[in-house]
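Table S5 (text form). Sequence records supplied for joint modeling of the two-component complex.
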Amino acid sequence: MAIRVFLVVLLFLSCTSPSFSLYEDQVGLMDWHQQYIGKVKHAVFHTQKTGRKRVVVSTEENVVASLDLRHGEIFWRHVLGTDDVVDGIDIALGKYIITLSSDGSILRAWNLPDGQMVWESFLQGSKHSKPSLLVLTNLKVDKDNVILVSSKGCLHAVSSIDGEVLWRKDFTAESLEVQKVIQLHDSGKIYVVGFTGSSQFHVYKINALDGELLKHESATFSGGFVGEVALVSSDTLVALDATRTVLVTIVFKDGEIKFQQTYISNLVGDTSEAAMILPSTLKGTFALKINTLMLFIRVTGEGKLEVVEKVDPATVVSDALSFSDDKQAFAVVQHRGNKIHLSVKLGDDWNSDLVKENIEMDHLRGHVHKVFVNNYVRTDRSHGFRALIVMEDHSLLLVQQGKIVWNREDSLASIIDVTTSELPVEKHGVSVAKVEHNLFEWLQGHLLKLKGTLMLASPEDVVAIQAIRLKGSKKSKLTRDHNGFRKLLIVLTKAGKIFALHSGDGRVVWSLLLPSLRKSEACDNPTGLNVYQWQIPHHHAMDENPSVLVVGRCGFSSNAPGVLSFVDAYTGKELNSLDLAHSIVQVIPLPFTDSIEQRLHLLVDADRRVHLYPKTPEAKSTFEQEISNIYWYSVEADNGIIKGHVIKSKCIGKGADDFCYDTGNLWSIVFPSESEKIIATVTRKPNEVVHTQAKVSVDQDVMYKYISKNLLFVATVSPKASGTIGSVDPEESSLVAYLIDTVTGRILHRMTHHGAQGPVHAVFSENWVVYHYFNLRAHRYEMSVIEIYDQSRAENRDVLKLILGKHNLTAPVSSYSRPEVVTKSQSYYFTHSVKAIAVTLTAKGITSKQLLIGTIGDQVLALDKRFLDPRRSLNPTQAEKEEGIIPLTDALPIIPQSYITHALKVEGLRGIITVPAKLESTTLVFSYGVDLFFTRLAPSRTYDSLTEDFSYALLLITIVVLVAAIFVTWVLSEKKELREKWR
Amino acid sequence: MKKKLSLFTLFFFLLFSSSLAFESDELLVDDDEFGLEGGQPQQQPRVRLAEPTPTTTRSTTTTRRRFSDPDSDSKIQFSLEHAFGDSDFVSAGTFSARLKTSSHGGQTLTKLRFSRNDFSEVEKENFEKLLQSDDFYRIRVPSNALSPPGRDYIISSVKARCLPREGLDEHFVINMEGVNILAVNYGGLGACPYPRQLKLPSKWSFNSHTVLKNSEQAPRAPIFAEDILGGEIGEGEVVQPPERSFWAKYWMYLIPLGLIVMNAVTQAMNMPVEQAAGQPGGQAHQSAAAIPRGPNTAVRRR
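The corresponding structure-token record, covering 1285 residues in total, follows.
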């Protein structure tokens, strides 16, 4: 009896595995987290002692990070805000990293070893000007380095100890545009040179210690100046004249300014193209770019110019690096086939080569964009050089001794769009034995797990259990699994590189720098827009690969011509690419596929014409059958107009082909420009599945959800309130929420929130929309929910009618019928401001939903939709409680355990993507920003499967023991009976 | 108690009446936010007979009587234009309304009335063509009622087949914001017949319904409601949670108790059986205990 009880208890113990929140040892089992920094803009090396092993970089994602030079790992990292762009970075006092950001208005010092902020100071100024940062390392006053910042039309001198502004020289009165701040050799004096207007040149000599103006000279150059100025030596500058055909050498020595002109045509022969001076800090030399040529020009005494070298424009030159006793070196990187050629030269001698290396380089990384050079002392006491190279695909490489020591795929910090693809089907069936090696080990593993469950495990056992879990979870296999947990995440990044990440462990399966999204002569500024699933073979899943469509455009404006690229999702090869004649404003994936299961897509151009892809006769015939049922809408947010369109006829005029159609305007909604401005539009996810249309309420009443794929949520605010929070009075600010049918343009619901302000983040799912905004009256963020129900089918709830067949359940639903809808809504306070909102999607839509909220702290919070139920009331009745209605509260609860990112942060969070797994209870969540985070969620717990650590061995043992016990007791009772009979 | 309950319901009614009012807005004829009128051009008396329902006429007269104050007597008009398929827009009727200037400067339109021009012969033909090709019948109104056309025209369309019934039924919901028109929900009165049947209207006259609609107020976050409700209830009686049945409360104790009792009974039954072999004296006691267990077990045991 006691044994039996014990076994039952055991069974219970093994079954209880709460999966609502995570235990410490479950971290990393089904989630992964990757940290990136983005494309490196500036890098500074530290040369002293422990700092030798580090490089500090600032990136285009506004990250300041300290990286390990040996392995490329991140020591520390700070992600500044999205509008806090880093302008300059330097080291002061040997222990502080100084960053200048926000257009030269914020100066911060970070402690080099641990990255803590030491001080921060705000620099004032009225005018916009080019920010620059200069640390006067040679000048030491009371162990202090003076930092000179030229920004906002002023020159600031800041103490590097505490960030105090020592002095400030305002140039706004002179309307001087500061070009360079030049430090004179350890004399404590600086030159500030700049232009007023386009032709007046000024030199100010200033005492760096107190800001005293020592001398001011100016001279006029009739030709005018334009563009960048190159500093060649401490008293010589080179600039271009206004026509960009003459190089002007400016020498300001001993109180006089001399101009000397040299025609570029004299240097290189005839050029038609305008020249450009490239920023560089080489001594005595500067770089000039003329169309397809890059020239290095040396300035000899008295302003004479001579061309040192003509190179390919893809050549990259590093800044000058001074090493032992006043020697300077710089690195030059050139492409030669699939190798790159790195040479480090002495500053004043172009022909000297300190280092000459050829490095094998994957051509998929594109061109070299930047190079930073650093020196070290070799074992034989000679000088060695290493180079940090930034490639076209935003990856960062460290090159030393002709080898790539490490590389970082930092383009993943700037994801634009994500889609998913299924993995290949397993070709040969794998038997269980193969996976589980042998029965003994399997049993042993389970016994260990059993020990763990019963808390009998020793620390070594715990380690072993964790290892088994991580190893045995098969999560990184490259085949489809039964539960649909393993997928390929296909991400498009800002660099025009496309990656396939494995959802199991986040590794890069393949990557491709799309040739069509690379800078070329035809396409100057290619930008990636979206990725779509192009072909998903179901019928030929075994022998055909799915493919994705990458949509981009040449240039930033919406009427730039489009680019399409088709990429195989398994191999990562570009199948085809198209340079389109028309622009791409909108892409509409249609719910039709052709015979090889390519999805039909409509591309809308800037002239409101639609183009059908793929351009095959079959797609065309499929499309033309459905042409009368295709409606689309366009939102002109600046104009405040939403328009509905319908396809009318074949295109006529230029660019017309068989797959181009003209459209007509069907409806329009014009928001009054003086009172409303569109700030958010949200639709339902096209792939969302709704399980049931009816919602049974407490009193056995049925409400029908108004489920239409054509609903659009629009939020408008008063134009005054479109600024930052607090910039407007509550009386002047209001937010209007609309639900609009996009086929007919009917406004189904319209609701005003007085005293509310954007930004609005919203999510639309099934028949409800949840949106987040700021309530100016309550000084808090609020979240509102609108649920929309269909009244026209309300009478269907009569069972008798259903039986008699008098219902209209089978009546066709038409958007043109007059909708009879009711809406319910409710608002709740929410503590956090929000970066993104998403909702969990599951395969059949049965599982209850959770909202995934990207908070301002860069974490993802899972909030049950039940908290945002408009039917919540103060005192729910018993029946309502049973239904799951939570008593009304004014604020939404934030339960610390429901952060799905647990202790981690997804720095710079921008988006959250949810993908249903095949298992109904589970959904996959991918959130991205500068970091990536992936996890698996079960909003209603895993009710349809046993958890991974379910002990099958225990179950088996229990069954065996029970069966044995039955036999034993049976035999015993038989014996006893026999004995009694014989008595 | 009763009084309180009625107060409570009244309160709730007031609280939610704004959201419920939306439905009744469309159907109630006497609502003073809209006038409801058919086309009635003088030049075509035939139509006039067919058109205006008695209720509509009544509603107009009553409203007129009620609101004849001279201050707000600024009447405005704006026109409705229509197009058949891709044709150009031509005038099709006039909306007239009164401009009400509220004390704080906001202007709103009230008492919207609509007079629809009837189809000319050409238009009839056009409409028939639309029906045959299943094309759109489009209308447009200016986006500003005071200074037409405002920024742009508000366009709305419907498949021509949705309009014909007895006559031509149309339904306008004009979404207003002050004097600006945001959008027009335009369509037939009821469901739009889906299997396309080419049905020509028996009467070529419009039966128009118009509704003016302004924005609703969003419900405030519940903290305010909570205060008011708290005052309402806090008169002394706390709402008691409904009493649960005895079984619902104590089932978790009752079931084990029952099991224990049953176990005890079987034990008690078995003991006497064994005793009975040597000691028939306990017979009476045993039979009493055996009753609830039934004879079945006893038989099997033996």
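Note: The beta strands of chain B are 74-84, 90-101, 107-116, 136-142, 153-159, 168-177, 180-187, 206-213, 216-217.
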